[in-house]
Amino acid sequence: MQHGRQFFRSSRTLLMGILNVTPDSFSDGGRYRSAEAAVGRGLEMVREGADFIDVGGESTRPGAAPVSESVETRRVLPVVEGLVKRAGVPVSIDTRKPAVARRCLEAGAGIVNDVGGLREPGMAETAADHGAAVVVMHMRGTPSTMQSDTSYADVVSEVTRYLERQAGLARRAGIREVAVDPGLGFGKTAQQNFRLLAGLRGIGEAGYPVLIGPSRKSFLGSLTSGLPVSERLEGTLAAVAAGVMNGAQIVRVHDVGPCRRLLDVLDAVSEAADAR
What we know:
By secondary structure, the protein is of the alpha/beta class. The chain is 41% helix and 13% strand.
């Protein structure tokens, strides 16, 4: 792990590739269940332009059942080890469990992507002890319960307050680099997800880099033109473009190559606007 490195600061939009090593993730569950296949896909994403690879061993789709710490560790650890040795980009561990995060950080991962938003006791301290960067995400409850409560008086302001509070907790624990994620698809209605994409500048006003993860999610299939998971590339790219134009600095996707090409154009337009 590269202690002291700035992971989330860049002159261009950063791209995190999703690598699920689960049997039941909503989009690609079961495709990369062997460590060899998963590492191969991670290396392919690096060639396609990923700045980070985010390895997850527990599905967080709506209604997903939790898995044990030992099962999750067994799934992710050999993949993290293989990518740390071969990928040449930072490796992120997508987990809510401090013990899983610790094992992966000891193996060389540099980022903890916590969909639980550092609510699990010991997670912030584990990340801080290993000099890791952290992504703090908003989610109500757990993946198995999150869609049971989607009532918000103002979804943008409520998500913003939560992220600011949890990012402050991370700072006080000694974590030097924190990004925030509004949690698209995690305990929100389709309309609330679109509202969050429109309100990202407000979420970023506290000064933390904003990460979005709209990739292939069900809210993209809620439109009249909505399509099944396997046909949501265009919707994903549109959501990514809207998010970046509204202030997102990091995007997390399955389809790295097409997204990298999209981001190159968006970044070129932004650079041209700044040069006027």
